[in-house]
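Subject: Protein record for review, amino acid sequence with backbone structure tokens
Concerning: The relation between a protein's sequence and the shape of its backbone.
How to read it: Take the token row as a discrete description of the fold.
Enclosed: The protein record, placed directly beneath this head.
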Amino acid sequence: MNKYLPVFLLVLLGACNQPGPKEKSVTKDTIQTTDSLQAVAKNAAPEYYFPEPKGWVNDFEGIFTRDEMTNLDSIIIAHKQQTGNEIAIATVPASYYPKDSLASYSFRLFNQWHIGEKEKNNGVGIILSKANRQVRIETGKGVIQILTNEKVQSIIDKSMIPSFKNGNYFEGTKKAIMDIIKILGKPA
């Protein structure tokens, strides 16, 4: 019985090294093709994370206190009741979007959240990332004639950034909201 054991093991080992009828052997070309496809897929679509909104003030970075969030929220709600315009705030950590694509990310985030009335497209979104040191204000087509890109940039430069440089994100954000409300005014 022992004299057949080595022959049996050799046959068994030989059979294990052969591809079966449905198996394909991995070649250098297969590995290179797979690596190329993964690289293309990685470069084709940046990785975004779109959280669900929790209200008008969405502090995913933990920048504001509860009282500060309540204060901002009450200002936004009062403005919405008077004008119908909707303002949303989002603070987002660096992990939610690639650093070089805040414009694309904020546009998609606020569209996904449906900021602004559908018929009027009267939404304004304020997004900031303390971690990435970035801020942006998005305007709907219904308010861009009044809240122009130049006015938005002025709000960022004069109301937000000076406060942010001093570490006062609440003050800068509140000033921006008040500036936006002043520009948008009462409903027509």
About this structure: The longest helix spans residues 66-83.
